[in-house]
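Um, can you check?
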Amino acid sequence: MQVEVFILIISLVGAIYSYFLYPLILLLLPVKNNFQFVDKQVDLASLPFVTFIITAYNEEALIREKIQNTIATDYPADKREILVASDGSTDKTNQYINSFVEQGVQLIEVEDRKGKENAQLAAIQAAKGEILIFSDVATQIPEKAIKRIATTFKNKKIGALSSEDRFITEKGEIAGEGAYVKYEMWLRRLESRVKSLVGLSGSFFACRKQICANWDINVPSDFNTALNCVSQGFVAISQPDVLGYYPNIKDESKEYQRKLRTVIRGMAAIAHKPSVLNPFKFGLFAFEVFSHKIMRWLVPWFQLALLISSIIAWQAHILVTVILAGQIVFYLLATIGWVSKAARSHTLAKLPFFFMQVNIAIAHAGIQFLSGKRITVWEPSKR
């Protein structure tokens, strides 16, 4: 076998592994967590005391709407508290938060801006609830979501749960990454079934307070919570009955920057806690992290190797020619989507464009991370 053909095969497997082969493996693995979520009459007396933790940085435009949305959730006022951790805000955010004091809202003011996880830690230390519910300002929570969260934790095996994301445009339509988000939600459900989630929706998730005992401000809270669950013998799951609604980011360039920051923070988290990849310590969870994170971060480099090896060996076999032709068509559609915003309204161009945008951001993040770039402070994307 020619060297370039061998490289082509390895690159092809690597390029499709995280998105296609990994979910297939999860489907074939035995189901360990077959949780059933059924709406029943809720016994108000049995509901646990919960703490909402909202993290904010200079959110004067949205913070009042967010607090009003939280207060309006269908959960007994005597069984919940609302803490808003302000991460060194310099605008009117703190002033607006304090205007809700009479409605049970407490400002946790963090003067030294050290990032989202540090602000969350300050709120965790002040929290009285058995269940902690974390949410970003831009996230809108359905009225009945908190009761569903509370009843889910009746299962003692569950240590944390993630909401499922719903991105909407100003017109109420599915955003450009709708298909990608749906895929991610499906993958999370598969991970929940066989072991535990690798990461939760950072904008809206919940966990038992004891899960936060080992809170690391240097690791994204959505990943750290999932890791702590496994370390303490719990599982982190995706709860399809709990939805978080997010306005789509209006500026597409800001969306790219958000992806860039997310990947750099993810890479830093694995570098900070490399033992999570040890199968002798974390078992199947280590396999999930490797497949979902590491292999996905390698996709753009597998794509590049696949394209180069296909060009070199295109005459070696008809299948190689077909593989090269498929790549040319795919990249042509992605380019059309990049050049024409109107073309991105059609799935044929939208999916290749979005896939390439994601992987270019991953490649860019990888280069920046290896060059020493780190994201220590947090600034929420403006939606």
Q: What stands out?
A: The radius of gyration is 22 Å. The first strand starts at residue 50 and ends at 56.
